[in-house]
């Protein structure tokens, strides 16, 4: 396990997303409307769609390819679909806004 | 403590009985221990499809409704190949011819019918069969390999379908009928004559007004003789003269029978705990011979057995369709003009179309359609609804499509009863499809087909299945919750737009708060819709919410399956230049674009572009965006027109370019495609566009509501104008009216189907109305900017195309 500094909180728009690559894993970082930052593997459990490109609604992201809904906390696809993506622990420094991912 | 389950036994492994069981195990999965006893050695199959099997449209394997696994998976014990010979109602048990004894708490009889065999001398000879089950089908197929001549006795639905099948198998087929015309139980004489002509063209022969006398031959049939002394040669005789409810078992068990087993509205027989359903049952004096009513009975019985409230079965109005390829026949209700009724007819000898509707007390009570059966389902639903048809007679007769005020297809689907059969081939009801979408999550016609078999055979019902999919898809809110534009709100488009106007709501968030959205941040359907409605209503004040746009519009490119994007520069009217082509080529080379392709919209597509390259490529291209990704104007296709073409009557290219320049970047409810053709040969395919312009000598025809996509639809003529300015004026007014009235994601084709061309014509007819619309669209257009110019110049927007800078590992 290692902690990685990936960027600053103001580099991601609200209800937006950015990507980062750590140890050959593509990761999508999302900033929810309440400024919380969450990270999941950037690969939809359906057919590998880039989740970073999807629309963020509350705590779920809609995959841009076929509209599966992925819960960003649990990584689980929501009913009626079935599947799961890896989630990563995120910390945000409250003072300088640095974002860290542990993996 | 484990509750012991009650024992349910079904006699008859056919369509009606098993259907009731299917319902029951959905309603009360754990309530019964179920045993099904069936005389045929097959799992439950679709009897209706036997006709298709004969005619080569399906294999025996394909017509199985529930395979052996289904019984296992549902814990149902199946005794196939067992005929029940005795019911002991006192000890509550049944006995089969194979010696099985099964106890029951509840017993369902679904023994179907027996084909009626004419008691002719010689009817026991080899080669004399009925048309009822798989065995009969197999006999016909085998016989056709060795023999040539077939005679079908009976010119009704079943007989004609058998005859058609035998023709397909290569036999020489004659149909013997006692009446002067065919299908007299469904058709009147005119329609029957047209049908006969059609079938004769397919090779069928007819012997009408013939009374069969005897079957001749030694061991095997050789000929059929008639009471008038004539004969017809035959190696095979198929009797299709009618069916008799199979009541033997019930009768010998002391259950009350008449023609069929007598049942009340709850399908109860005269003996306690014994029910009857299907063709063997007689309800209010009627024993039905079609699946739709039997399925209705089955669902009532299932509810009853599941202990649910039900108002009972009240009988059915039936409709029939002849399943013979190349012949369209539909009949429903009272086609026979009972006393006190009047009928209206339409006949077109040239196209072979005949229609008749029968009206009594202002209500539609019957219909016969031949040649054009498109309105069958609609007429049938009007018959069943019992609504008044005063003033609509002509519309009903001549086809609903001609009238603007007819109910939309969606509305018609919505009104349909759950039990109504959508897929006749596979006997799939509306309710089953609803269930597949809502409960099983089917999200495409393919999935619905896999799940229910609907549209799996002839595919004729596919538009209906699609319609239902549209109706139900996305309904995650569950049954009983009214669904509006999506599962987040019960409000529909018009209600929402009215509220936004009334309260002058100014942001998506405000709309959701004030209108009490169930899902505080909405979903991928309502967010883009609201974003569109707000922008349309308040073009000057509303700030577009980029995060509420779908992916393609957010990144101004089409996302592809591997996460790359495409670049489509605008090429006005499909006209380019060597310099422009060179520039595109250079950029493609520089960025290693994997594919350069001509699109179907007369321009170039650079495909497989990495997201981070998008802004750089657009910067170098320095061309306007082609908006190949948005709910906006896409392309304006043109043909060469009078610039070069020998037939051209006007400058189609110039007109096209002018339109494309006028409307590029316009936000619309759904994508909008235009085309301009230089003459009625229409090389730009203008008549399948949202707005199509066809030049004629001295003017321009304006066509609207076309679509070349999923549901192809030809345009309807809006009007004819004289000058190019008028074309732009009408296009502007039309597009603005569409912008202001259509639902988000509704193409003009669906919109026009919904509201009717008349409404649009009325709205655009007066010059002052048109001008007001033109003014509004111009206001909106004056506020648009090229998205890529903006992105290229704005770091805040541009950053979203790049990954975050290399991650820095802090500790381990
Ligand atoms: C590039 C192009 C195919 C080609 O190589 O020729 C294309 C590509 C796509 N079409 Fe198309 N359509 C293209 C011409 C058409 C045409 C023909 C035309 O416009 O003349 C049609 C039928 C005409 C019509 O729309 O009335 C067409 C009917 C569709 C439909 C069905 C629309 C409908 O209302 O039924 C969709 C799906 C949708 O929009 O929801 C679609 C959707 C798509 C999308 C955007 C799928 C998507 O949402 O991501 C495809 C993007 C592929 C990609 O990876 O970049 N495409 N598409 C054509 C671009 C034309 C252009 O220059 O802009
Ligand atoms: C060729 C053909 C085409 C048709 N086309 C259409 C159509 O287009 N549209 C339409 O609506 N309808 C059509 N029908 C009619 C439709 O198939 C029937 O209405 C329907 O199958 C009746 O269902 P059921 O369950 O009552 O009887 P069945 O499906 O006949 O089932 C009864 C079953 O019970 C079994 N059985 C009988 N007695 C016993 C016993 N004592 N013990 C155990 N098992 C027993 C029988 O072997 C049979 O398998 C067609 C029928 C045929 C033959
Ligand atoms: S038809 Fe259109 S949507 Fe379908 S694969 Fe081709 S480009 Fe894609
Ligand atoms: S790849 Fe994500 S929904 Fe299909």
TrEMBL record, chain A:
Sample GO molecular function, one term: nitrite reductase [NAD(P)H] activity
Pfam families: Rieske (PF00355)
Keyword annotations of the record: 2Fe-2S, Iron, Iron-sulfur, Metal-binding, Nitrate assimilation, Oxidoreductase
Listed PROSITE patterns: RIESKE (PS51296)
Domain Rieske: residue ranges: 4-99
One annotated GO biological process: nitrate assimilation
SUPFAM superfamilies named in the record: ISP domain (SSF50022)
NCBIfam families given in the database record: nirD_assim_sml (TIGR02378)
PANTHER family: 3-PHENYLPROPIONATE_CINNAMIC ACID DIOXYGENASE FERREDOXIN SUBUNIT (PTHR21496:SF23), FERREDOXIN-RELATED (PTHR21496)
Name the UniProt record assigns to this protein: Nitrite reductase (NADH) small subunit
Species of origin: Cohnella lupini
UniProtKB/TrEMBL annotation, chain B:
Cofactors required: [4Fe-4S] cluster; FAD; siroheme; [2Fe-2S] cluster
Binding positions for [4Fe-4S] cluster per the UniProt entry: 639, 645, 679, 683
Note on cofactor: Binds 1 [4Fe-4S] cluster per subunit.
Record keyword Oxidoreductase present: yes
Residue intervals of the NADH-rubredoxin oxidoreductase C-terminal domain: 319-386
The BFD-like [2Fe-2S]-binding domain, residue ranges: 421-470, 485-534
Annotated Nitrite/Sulfite reductase ferredoxin-like domain residues: 560-622
Leader sequence residues: none
BP-aspect Gene Ontology terms: nitrate assimilation
Keyword annotations from UniProtKB, A to Z: 2Fe-2S, 4Fe-4S, FAD, Flavoprotein, Heme, Iron, Iron-sulfur, Metal-binding, Nitrate assimilation, Oxidoreductase
Pathway as given in its UniProt record: Nitrogen metabolism; nitrate reduction (assimilation)
PANTHER family membership: NITRITE REDUCTASE (NADH) LARGE SUBUNIT
Protein name per the record: Nitrite reductase (NADH) large subunit
Origin species: Cohnella lupini
